[in-house]
Write a structure and sequence with these properties.
Elements: H1 3-28, H2 33-64, H3 80-95
Helix pairs in contact: 1-2, 2-3
Length: 96
């Protein structure tokens, strides 16, 4: 993950953690269901945005940039067919 992406993801995760804590408080306070659902939707959207950053970094660095030194140190050498499978698996995990 690029340094700027890592900092962005960390900031967003802290924000989501705050949203989840707020959701817990709303439930504890027996707040109106629609208000809780609205906040839940916002937290889900924030997590999706984080996923897009991570998925984009993975495709740019580890798939398109495979073999250039931009991939993660844990990435293994792959053939083109394996890289396509890597994208498929990544998308499946993100969208599941």
């Amino acid at each position: 993950m690029r340094c700027e992406s890592k900092a962005q993801v960390q900031r967003r995760l802290k924000r989501v953690a705050g949203q989840v804590a707020g959701l817990q408080k709303m439930v504890d306070e027996d707040r109106y269901c629609i208000d809780v659902l609205t906040q839940l939707s916002a937290a889900r959207a924030a997590l999706d945005a984080i996923g897009i950053v991570l998925l984009t970094d993975h495709i740019e660095g580890c798939v398109v940039g495979h073999g250039t030194g931009s991939e993660h140190p844990c990435a293994t050498k792959m053939e083109p067919e394996e890289l396509v499978e890597e994208v498929r698996v990544s998308l499946k995990r993100f969208l599941a």
